[in-house]
Amino acid sequence: MKRRITAWICALALGAASAAAEPLPARDMIYRTPNEDSEVLCGHDFCFWQLTEGEMDEDLVWQVLMQPLMVLEGKQRDQIRVRARPEEDCADYVGVVTCASQGVHVLRQEGDWTLIEAYSSAEEGSKVQVWATRFQGYVKTKLLKELPVDDQYGLVIDKLQQRLYVYKEGHLFSTLLCSTGFPREDTPFNETPAGEFAIVSWVGAFWAGSLYCDKALRINSGIMLHEVPCTITTDEATGEEKRDYTRCERYLGEKASHGCIRIQKELTPERVNAEWLWKNLSRKPVTKVIIWDEIGRQLGYPDEDYPLYYNPKNGKNYHSSPDCPLVKEKYRPLQAFTWGELEEEPYSKLTPCPGCAPQLRREGIDTVNEKNTRK
Fold first, then answer.
1. What are residue 97's DSSP bridge partners?
2. What's the domain range around 311?
3. Where do the H-state alpha helices sit in 244-338?
4. Predicted confidence band at 280 (pLDDT cuts at 50, 70, 90)?
5. Does residue 326 sit within a domain?
6. What is the 3-state secondary structure (H, E, C) of 57-123?
7. 140: Cβ–Cβ under 8 A, 6 or more apart, which residues?
8. How far apart are CA 134 and CA 118, in angstroms?
9. Please, are residues 146 and 139 in contact by the beta-carbon 8 Å criterion?
10. Which tens digits make up the pLDDT trace of 233-278?
């Protein structure tokens, strides 16, 4: 708790200093680190488990993204059950780790055994029914393998805000809307685990029931980053294939998947989308992906004078950028207004742009917090 309060005070101090320079977007009310409530605490520098969730300090995030990943040896779909005690005959399993792609937090080596920390990647049907929650337990030391990571790009996914952040060469490059797993009472395994991962294979397209998912990148056994799904129909007269994304696009920015991370197909102002990730991320060395959990977090409001943009000539959306590519060029650059004015005319009826991921309205942030029941 002391470390959480210290992080909060530091964040407030930094926030106060930053606010004098430029308005701040929505950010966590109190900052937490993944490891802070763990039985064995972390003392590593530039470690995911010491990074405050929701942290938007570019230098800190980039330092963490550049650290090599420690994974377990095995095939991409292999999973290791992690023991509660460093004993061969221990059948008390505390979680599941996916080989090759899921990063583990090495806490203490004890000869043939190593104490690790991770978020459980147990899948449907697993005998270890620990779903996407943090645990500490033991694996064989010989299974540990260090993976170097790409030094040009890294990804951060925030399950609270349902945003995917693309970092490039030390700086936040682009922000995309996404949808992580949406668990129900009878499908707890649909929750997307947090943690550190490597993109280990370019899977391509696959069907999920009646939904077609394209440009899939594997990060954790059956969990992939992929373009927002569509339905496909064929025009009987012309034989032309038609793809309809509306069914799933409307849920981008909130939980909606069976565990995968759905990513927008619309271009951001930096011309980034799911297809761009498919074409530009590194295969070797691997691209690192950080996923922040939402447990115990609460989202605050942006500063009242945080800038937004709109097209005064019958524009329907509000935007995060004056040059959003979803607006015709003749209407750009867009006209500025502030987040504090969103509920006033003529901005009160504008809807958030599906391409440039603008800040949510006050009501939207309240909904995010109300839906976050993971404590």
1. 80
2. 307-358
3. 246-249, 274-280
4. very high
5. yes
6. CHHHHHHHHCCCEEEECCCCCCEEEEECCCCCCCCCEEEEEECCCECCEEEEEECCEEEEEEEEECC
7. 112, 113, 114
8. 6
9. no
10. 998 888 899 999 999 999 999 999 999 999 999 999 999 999 999 9
Say if 130 falls within a structural domain.
no
Q: Which of 248, 243, 282, 247 is nearest to 263 (CA)?
A: 248
Within a domain: 324: yes
User: Could you tell me which residue, 294 or 5, shows the higher pLDDT?
Assistant: 294
The span from the CA of 153 to the CA of 164, in Å, is: 13
Residue 163 lies in a domain: no
Which residues are CB-contacts of 176 (< 8 A; sequence separation ≥ 6)? 163, 164, 165, 166, 263, 264, 268, 272, 273, 357
Query: How many domains would you assign to the chain?
Result: 1
Only one residue has tokens 């294979």, namely 201
Q: What type of residue is 84?
A: A
> For the whole model, what pTM was predicted?
0.93
Model confidence over 124-140: pLDDT tens digits?
999 999 999 999 999 99
Residue 343 has what pLDDT?
Answer: 96
- Both tokens of 167, joined, read 């970092």
